[in-house]
Amino acid sequence: MMAELFPRYHRNNISFTDIKEAADRIHYDEIDAILGDIIKVFLELGFSEKNIGRYTNFVLGNTYCIPVYVDSLGFLIEYAESEQEAIINGHGDGDSYPLYMGRKAILEAIRLDLLKEVPELQVGI
To answer: Rounded to an integer, what distance in angstroms lies between the CA atom of residue 94 and that of residue 2?
Structure first.
């Protein structure tokens, strides 16, 4: 019966698991690419990279940020307001940017939120 419903998959010995694993790889490749673009946004805005504990923080003035992806929420920017806070991993979560927003909208929203939230970027606002 399965061979009749999905003859192409049966003929090529491709299982549902194979298809799901391929979709997951594409999904995580997209997440990695967007995280790379988010890092570019930080660097374009003048942040520098600093390793603190197990995490790379993007630092500007007294603002320490870590971009993360959480499956149930999407992309988050975690904020700490001092190096001491960052050392004890006292970062608080910012807004979430779900993957369904699309790459361009996620990057634009993160850029605008950083401009709004990071004191050193608010010159002339």
So the answer is: 47
